[in-house]
User: Which sequence fits this backbone?
């Protein structure tokens, strides 16, 4: 597409922008041909299968330019894709990035965005191998495709949960949602909560420790809230489950802010979204193995419930009363 409509980038043009990005890309031996040819050529490791996932991020739907600094937007746009590969037990390897750029976007925004994107890529050994750029008449549009690989026997799907399995989650829940709520309410909000919202860390090391140990029956990343995302595991596995609200892992930032609410805002931890933690199921005989995985990767893993044979997912307060969802996890088209 012509770059002439991108006035803020007009001086360098589309090809100038592409070579500006290409100049910063680090590559490795898995990339036979990267950016610059008609298609990228990559080599899978022997015996491994290819995992592919794609995500779109739209201005004012997924992010706001007034809130999200370009560096952390770049990091997050790749992090959420890496999180999907981690959730399959995969090793993230290559990415494609397509950007539709509004005419008023300063070049420095793209520079900072790419700096963030490539820092997240470097931290996870992901190589940018291609993409597309064009002008946008309706805000910044980002499309990220991620590819990873894994041995067939170590790929983890949503469909393997068994009745009686423990339900586990990594890290803490609700921090991003609380950060968003406080920001929207104009309340002061700690940098830690904001960082969970704007710069989430994909749990690749935790996922790899778990899949290498072979202890996981089903796994998903928590992007729409633990209730909705465990619900996907339950649905694909033909099971149900009960989540113990008293067992939900809450950060000290979450707990200290919660003190200002009349009730602990459990709905943010259950249905808030954007946690990018991993929810997984495992046979109860693997509790010790999972605690070894935790030590290996340095990421907390908490048992929050039990898979049941009867379908339907519920959450239960410590006093035994049933949680009534205010709304399910985030969903488009509603
Ligand atoms: Mg996902």
Assistant:
């Amino acid at each position: 597409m012509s770059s002439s409509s991108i006035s803020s980038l007009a001086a360098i043009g589309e090809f100038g922008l592409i070579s500006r990005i290409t100049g910063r890309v680090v590559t490795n031996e898995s990339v036979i041909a990267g950016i610059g040819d008609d298609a990228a050529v990559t080599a899978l490791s022997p015996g491994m299968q290819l995992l592919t996932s794609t995500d779109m991020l739209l201005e004012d739907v997924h992010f706001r330019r007034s809130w999200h600094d370009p560096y952390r937007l770049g990091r997050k746009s790749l992090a959420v894709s890496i999180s999907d590969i981690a959730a399959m037990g995969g090793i993230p390897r290559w990415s494609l990035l397509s950007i539709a750029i509004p005419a008023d976007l300063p070049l420095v925004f793209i520079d900072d965005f790419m700096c963030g994107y490539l820092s997240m890529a470097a931290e996870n050994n992901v190589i940018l191998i291609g993409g597309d750029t064009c002008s946008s008449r309706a805000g910044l549009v980002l499309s990220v495709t991620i590819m990873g690989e894994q041995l067939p026997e170590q790929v983890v799907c949503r469909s393997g949960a068994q009745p009686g399995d423990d339900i586990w989650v990594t890290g803490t829940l609700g921090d991003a949602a609380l950060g968003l709520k406080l920001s929207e309410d104009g309340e002061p909000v700690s940098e830690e909560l904001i960082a969970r919202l704007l710069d989430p860390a994909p749990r690749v090391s935790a996922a790899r420790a778990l899949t290498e140990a072979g202890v996981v029956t089903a796994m998903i990343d928590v992007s729409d809230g633990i209730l909705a995302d465990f619900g996907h595991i339950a649905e694909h596995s033909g099971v149900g489950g009960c989540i113990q609200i008293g067992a939900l892992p809450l950060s000290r930032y979450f707990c200290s802010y919660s003190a200002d609410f009349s009730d602990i805002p459990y709905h943010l931890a259950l249905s808030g979204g954007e946690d990018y933690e991993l929810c997984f199921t495992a046979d109860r005989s693997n509790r010790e193995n999972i605690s070894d995985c935790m030590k290996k990767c340095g990421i907390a893993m908490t048992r929050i419930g039990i898979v049941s044979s009867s379908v339907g997912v519920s959450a239960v307060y410590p006093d035994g009363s049933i949680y009534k969802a205010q709304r399910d996890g985030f969903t488009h088209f509603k």
